[in-house]
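Recall the central idea of this unit: under ordinary conditions, the amino acid sequence of a chain determines the structure it adopts. In this exercise we apply that idea directly, starting from the sequence alone.
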Amino acid sequence: MEGTRLTLARKMRGFSKKELAELVEVTPKSIADYEKDITNPSTEIEQRLIRALRFPEAFFNLHTTEPMSEEAISFRARTKLKRSQKDIATAEATLATELSDWCNTKFNLPKTNVPTIEGIDPVLAAEMLRKEWKMGDGAIPNLLALLESHGIRIFFAGEIGNEVDAFSYWEPKTQCPYVFLTTSKSGERRRMDAAHELGHLVMHRNLDMGTSTTKEIEAEANRFASAFLMPKSTMLKYTPRSFSLRDAVVLKKQWKVSVAAFIFRSHDIGLLTDWQYHNLFKQLSAAGWRTDEPNAIIPEQSEVNKQVINLLLKMPQKLSTATNETALPLELCYQLLTGTSAQVVLGGKTHARKVCERKANLTVVQ
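Accordingly, the structure predicted from this sequence is:
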């Protein structure tokens, strides 16, 4: 049993060394020794570990994977995170990289095209990226599809606490950008989270996220996201200078953002006075629309991942092909790819194919 793999599986399941030791009836020191490859567990203890961690036995015998560095990940509210939350997130990032590497061997995925734009105002960075990607100044129909078309890999994190939220990173070895989203957010919040993480990828690529001033870089990513989703020139052209909360509910639909985000951006570009801005937010809170607003959009999903699953379902071994060759649990693969339970696949062909109704545009590597 390879020590690094044991550590990854333990962190992925959210166990401390002490908790895992209690489950398999050994000491925490024994777990530490197994993970450092100082000693090897007996056959009996190894089987207990495999059952407790719910990973295939083959997983623990694969080559050593360099765990994703915690400092490379753009955690929000980093200082408030529990050790277990950071561990789960870094383990998910490491294992998602393995799954992505496998996908690259099987499918022709989009190449990375994400420029580094550092040291300038976030709003200008957003405008420069739109120009680089030849987007114009209109609304973005599907943000996740746009990111994936430029080589950003989208995965979904397990429910590891609201403090973790979305996160992103550049994988050091392949220099591939990754964005992790959560499934607990509304469709509008998911788009804003994705744009926020895009801001980190573009503006903070060379920062040590572990030592950087979190409040400052998070504010920069927020400003980038707002400007990227709602370009000033088009907002000024189509948004009245004085609008009611009911108007905002209608107007925000064009941009597929929350009412709060639309009001914030309108104030930022001078469409609202300070008084109007604060008054609208008071009305928003009174209406209960800060968390549950009308005209909600359907959350965007990863088009690439849906197409990968669609192609896998057409193969003889279907989705189990990925789990066989990566030795990752089926439920983990499906969670990373879709953010939902593997029971959608395990429940039967008909139900599984509903997840992948769009015709796949990816091609299998021959």
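Residues 344-360 have pLDDT under 50 and may be disordered.
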